Amino acid sequence: MSIPAQYFRKGSRNKYGAKKTVVGDIKFDSKKEAHRWMDLQLLERAGVISELQRQVKIELMGQHGPLLTRTGRKMRFTVDFAYTEKGAVIHEDVKGYATRDYEVRVAVARAMGLEVKET
């Protein structure tokens, strides 16, 4: 007995149209992020950047300690990549569309003195 196709769940799609992409054994949220990862790996091999990392979590701090979300958890900002370039630590996020939540977190990270680069 076969099950009619109408009962199968359709694949979910990203709200902003990004297509998940796999490079090697790493899964990326978008093609743009995957391409940037490959570019950064080439720069690291060439010696332009060093200490390349993916999905780096940053705890956001205010004047009086850690910032909290509405639910009471510590507010974090996860950047796609972090690396060192000319002695400075760069936090980079690949964005197709910046949400209000993202803009707030970037502003707080920059107020903390972190360099956040958007690509």
Describe the structure.
The strands form three sheets. Strands 3-6-7-8 form a four-stranded mixed beta sheet. A two-stranded antiparallel ribbon has the order 1-2. The protein has two helices and eight strands. A hairpin with a 2-residue loop joins strand 1 and strand 2 (26-28). The protein is α+β, with helices and mostly antiparallel strands and 119 residues long. The protein has helices at residues 31-46, 100-111; strands at 21-23, 26-28, 50-59, 61-62, 65-66, 76-85, 88-93, 115-118. The protein is flat.
Determine the structural class based on helices, strands and strand pairing.
alpha+beta
What portion of the residues fall into strands of 2 or more residues?
25-35%
Helix content: 10-25%
Distance between the termini: 51 Å
The shape, in one word, is flat
Report the order of strands and helices. Answer: EEHEEEEEHE
The main β sheet shows up as:
4 strands, mixed
Number of strands: 8
The strand order across the widest sheet is 3-6-7-8
Low-pLDDT segments = none
Total number of helices: 2
How much is the radius of gyration in Å?
Answer: 18 Å
Mean pLDDT: 88
Oligomer: single chain
Keywords, please?
24% helix, flat, 4-stranded mixed beta sheet, 34% strand, 8 strands, two-stranded antiparallel sheet, alpha+beta, 119 residues
